[in-house]
Amino acid sequence: MEPLTWTGSLGTFLNPLFLFALFAFAVSVLGFILLNIVKPEPEIRAVNSQMAAEAAGGPGALLGMGLRYSFFAILALIVIYLLAGIVTPYGFAGIVGEVGVRFTPVWIALVLTFVLSITYKRKLGLYGKLFDSLIGMVGFALVMFWVFTAIFAGVFDMIITHPVLDQVSGMKNKVPGTPLGNPEPGEYPHYLLGGDTLARDVFSRMVAGSTTVLLIAPAATGFAFMVGITLGLPAGFYGGKFDTVISFLANLVLAFPVILLFFLLVTPEIREYVIFSIFSNNVTFPKFMAAILFIFPILFLVVLWNSRFFTQPSKRNLYVALTVIIGGYFYLGLAWDADPLGLISLDGGVLIVFVSVVFVNSPTVFRIVRGLVLDIKTRDYVAAGQTRGEGPWYIMLWEILPNARGPLIVDFCLRIGYTTILLGTLGFFGLGLSPESPDWGTTINQGRRLLGVYPHPAIVPALALMSLVLGLNLLADGLREESLKD
Amino acid sequence: MGTFLLRRVGVMLLTALCLTFIVFFMTTLYPNLEKLAKTEGNFRMSDEAVASWLDKNGYLEPLWKGYGQWLGVLPGHTYTDEDGTVTGACIRPGMTPEEAPTYCGVLQGDWGQSITLKDDAGTLIATRLGLTGWLALCAFAVMIPAALIIGILAGMREGSRMDRSLSTFSIASSATPEYVSGVIFIAVFAASASPLNAWLSEMNLIDGRTLFKGSATSAMKDITWANFTLPVATIALYGVGYIARMTRASMAEVMTAQYIRTARLKGVSFRAVVLKHALRNALIAPFTVIMLQFPYLLTGVVITETLFNYKGFGWLLVHAASTNDIQLLLGCSVVAVFVVLVTQLISDIGYVFLNPRIRIA
User: Fold this and answer.
1) Pairwise CB contact (< 8 Å): B317 & A259
2) What are A276's strand-pairing partners?
3) pLDDT tens digits, residue range A321-339?
4) In this structure, are residues A201 and A162 in contact, taking their beta carbons and an 8 Å threshold?
5) B-chain residues within 8 Å CB-CB of A447?
């Protein structure tokens, strides 16, 4: 097998085109900046005078056209690079093309999502409005790319070319596109993005890492939101002593440097430290914290159902019972590792990472929720609800919370990104997750030792992490813009 | 104002006490102490030997007492041997028990000994803080002007093409944590394999094999362009985006205000409106944000110093935490916590001073 080049035979005639498009784009951007500097101070403008000026012609219009066309040419060429491999024989489209082929299910799922969403966008509320903003769409595409990748790789075992922990002899630190020495029949013949220091496939590890990251980050953020909302609602609504105490505690956690907290919480000694024993179950430090933090979602849901349906006891009892049984089952399995059926359990390393990330995030959520409640509780509809005889928890959960959803959804997106960064930080310091774990932070940590000589094992997960966080930030920006338009 | 300040300082001290107590509690959990005893004594110590070693060195005091001794409000621990020799935390080598001070804690300026680095923790922290100070100073000197300019340019004409592109840049930069940008910077500018460096050395534009250095260890003695650019850029990049976005939001809000419109209508040029009327009011919010950026800067410093092997405060913190060097770790956490709390205080006070609409009696 020949080593693959980045763009393969396809590149021989596409690369010059691509370089030309890049050059044209750079020239028009530079021209634009120059034009803006040289241009004399305009008189007081009408709202869309810039567009009018461009329509009128002149160098601005020419540059604008150049900018637009070269940009679209670059985009189109990138799409061709990525997708050409699907129709051409193996190896023709180079590394980029073959990576594109591996992601085929993701492309199909993405196209389907976008076609369906754009068709029905007027019926889909805030989610549909997202497709009115370009920034929001780009962000959504990036996020969904990784979500689909995580699903297809984690559930269906697609995309990945080699098993994550397989070490192939002779592939140590090999550059991207190196063929395997003597591949067995049916084995993927190349390491698409090269091999790492332990001769494992960088591409497969990066893809598998997305599953780990996308399992932990959104779930941890969700738990942090449950904790923050459950404590922030009453703190803002009632105020008083409860508010003072909880706010002080939240500020305490916030004043703690995150990195120090991680080092204190996640060292092996603390992880194995037994606080007390109960029912012959040793309660270690992470378990203790998990036991406290994981109870909040159940608490939240029980109060939610009870405040709404306490006038219909049969319905209320059903919902509360379901929540307690299902939630309690997960609670026992996740926090106490005591699932009666033995199905659900969390690895100790994952548990402490999960718990510390929730712990770091929840005070910020608490502050946001508290601030929102302080603002919303002065509104007329809250007073109207009180006059109608609604209970305080009904007002908090069914009047105030739905009206605070806009900022909370935006913050949720941003916070998943921040949690991803935190997870990466933990991995970077080798805390928590096992060194074999394919998650991006741990992989960056392993790759950074030989960064000067073999950059690819660290660069690949770094770019993956960056693109996911970027997608989440763009998505949050688009959502904020669209929700402000209401 | 006086009572406000007093109350804030009081809350700050209380927070600092609570936090240092938590750190003290977590670093002196028994498994940590056991590890300490084994690294100090020998690894094959029996459990009794560990216990007696710990007792002799005063680690087995009750939590409150130990914390008080470390803080310097309780007399330091002393231990009398069977043969009558008195040893104690405050009795340094070459001192008799009589001349040793009774109290030796942080309040007396005694930060204890670092076990792994065999030096006084206080001096260690002070010198390393100095090194980190240079890094942080350079990073701030790059980050704040860049962020403010980007934010103001983007915010002065909301929705324009300039705003779109600068906002996208700031979003991208705040999506790039230090360990990502650092890795990319090293791979592009400091790896001999990178095409940029190959091209540059072929053209004889650089002396060595790479444009910048991937390690900043030499910058501890002598800061040069080659060894300090990458760490500074790494720290600055993550912060730029966030401050720029806050500045943009604040600027965009000010630009819609009535008095800006009035100024424009009476014929003041756009440049003068931005520089004289809008800027001062638009910079109040970013000031708070910049001050609150310090805690994040601390995380950034820790990551960057580890990545570039620059042995400053962040490196010391990681070292102390991973070797469980108790006294050193406690000292580092006190400094870290105080940095956070003091910046919070400054940001609160500064906000009151800058914003004439807020007056606290």
Assistant:
1) yes
2) A283
3) 999 999 988 888 888 777 7
4) yes
5) 183
Return d(Cα A207, Cα A388) in angstroms, integer: 54
B283 Cβ under 8 Å from any chain A Cβ: no
ipTM: 0.87
- Indicate the residue of B35, B183, B264 with minimum beta-carbon distance to A44: B264
Which pair of tokens denotes residue B207?
Answer: 């002396």
Distance, in Å, from the CA atom of A238 to the CA atom of A434, rounded to the nearest integer, reads 44
CA gap A119, A388 in Å, rounded: 42
Q: Contact at 8 Å (CB) between A102 and A145?
A: no
Q: Which residues of B, range 340-359, sit inside 8 Å of A by Cβ?
A: 340-341, 344
| DSSP reduced 3-state for A74 | helix
Tokens found for residue A479? 């959502």
Q: In chain B, which residue ranges form alpha helices assigned H by DSSP?
A: 2-27, 30-40, 47-56, 63-71, 121-156, 161-174, 178-185, 195-202, 225-255, 258-265, 270-272, 279-282, 284-308, 313-323, 326-354
Alpha carbon separation from A158 to A143, A151, A207, A349, A361 (Å, rounded): 19, 9, 10, 26, 33
> What tens digit of pLDDT does each residue of B93-120 get?
666 666 677 777 777 777 877 877 888 8
Report the alpha-carbon distance of residue B71 to residue B206 in Å, rounded: 53
Q: Measure in Å the smallest separation between the Cα of A363 and chain B Cα atoms.
A: 15
Query: How many CA atoms, within 13 angstroms, populate the side-chain half-sphere of residue A396?
Result: 23
Cβ of A260 within 8 Å of Cβ of B29? The answer is: no
Minimum distance, in Å, between the CA of residue B101 and any CA atom of chain A: 32
> What distance separates the 2 farthest-apart alpha carbons in chain A?
82
CA nearest B330 in A: which residue?
Answer: A260
Tell the residue number behind the tokens 């935390």, with chain if given: B89
Matching residue, tokens 């869309």: A48
In contact, A238 and A361? CB cutoff 8 Å:
no
* Highest mean pLDDT of the ranges A359-373, A424-438, B193-207: A359-373
Six-digit token string for B303: 């990551």
Four-residue CA torsion sign, B318, B321, B322, B325: positive
Predicted confidence at residue A44, as pLDDT, reads 46
Half-sphere exposure of A61 (CA within 13 A, CB side): 8
- Contacting residues of B for A136, CB less than 8 Å apart: none
Region A345-365: what's the mean pLDDT?
87
Q: How far apart are CA B199 and CA B56, in angstroms?
A: 63
How many residues are present in chain B?
A: 361
Q: Is A355 helix (H, G, I), strand (E, B) or coil?
A: helix
Measured CA to CA, the distance from residue B46 to residue B62 in angstroms comes to 22
H or E stretch at A54: helix A49-56
β partners of residue B120: B113
Give the pLDDT band of residue A359 (cuts 50, 70, 90). Answer: very high
Probe site for chain B from A54, A259, A289, A418 (most B CB atoms < 10 A): A259
Size of interface A-B (CB pairs under 8 A): 147
